[in-house]
Design goal:
The chain has one domain. The protein contains six helices and no strands. The protein starts with a helix and ends with a helix. It has helices at about 1-40, 45-65, 85-120, 125-130, 130-150, 150-170.
Length: about 170
């Protein structure tokens, strides 16, 4: 199925980008530390690049943990619902999450366009790196949509199991 292949390709791309960004971030920070402590100088651009690399790690890592169902859930009421009700609400809630992430991607994209438009020519490279924010929200939107379309039953079953484990832990 096309959606399954899209999901696999998305996960592979995110894995490469997140791990590559983390590796590059560690390398650049090591260079910066050595430059400051040994040579008593530093590279000012490395700080800007590092800040953007942190965003790459955060957004693409968030996509990966969302895909695995390990993302932070704010579902206080889920423990009060029966497993059947959780299963019924899985798709609408995942759709709502996708809609919220899409709205964030849209407004982040508008903000980025303004930043790009008014950035001086010598700072355009930083504006290009800042595009990670709308792209990251778009990736999260895709993940929530794919979860709603492909795995809503699996996710609700996992939620039911985790709620059961929490209930058992609270009773002991």
């Amino acid at each position: 199925m096309i959606l399954i292949r899209l999901k696999r390709a998305l996960v592979q791309l995110e894995t490469v980008v997140a791990s590559g960004s983390l590796l590059l971030l560690l390398l650049l920070m090591l260079i910066q530390i050595i430059a400051r402590n040994v040579f008593e100088t530093g590279f000012p651009l490395l700080d800007v690049i590092s800040r953007h690399l942190v965003l790459f790690v955060i957004f693409f890592g968030a996509g990966l943990v969302t895909e695995q169902g390990q993302h932070i859930r704010i579902d206080v009421l889920a423990s009060l619902l029966s497993p059947q009700h959780r299963k019924m609400l899985a798709r609408p809630l995942l759709g709502l999450c996708a809609l919220l992430c899409a709205a964030m991607a849209w407004y982040a994209g508008l903000f980025w366009l303004g930043e790009w438009q008014y950035a001086p020519s010598n700072e355009r490279w930083a504006a290009v790196m800042a595009a990670v924010i709308p792209v990251g929200f778009t990736v999260l939107t895709l993940h929530f949509l794919l979860m709603a379309l492909l795995r809503s039953e699996l996710q609700s079953d996992q939620n039911a199991e985790s709620a059961t484990v929490q209930d058992k832990a609270e009773s002991t």
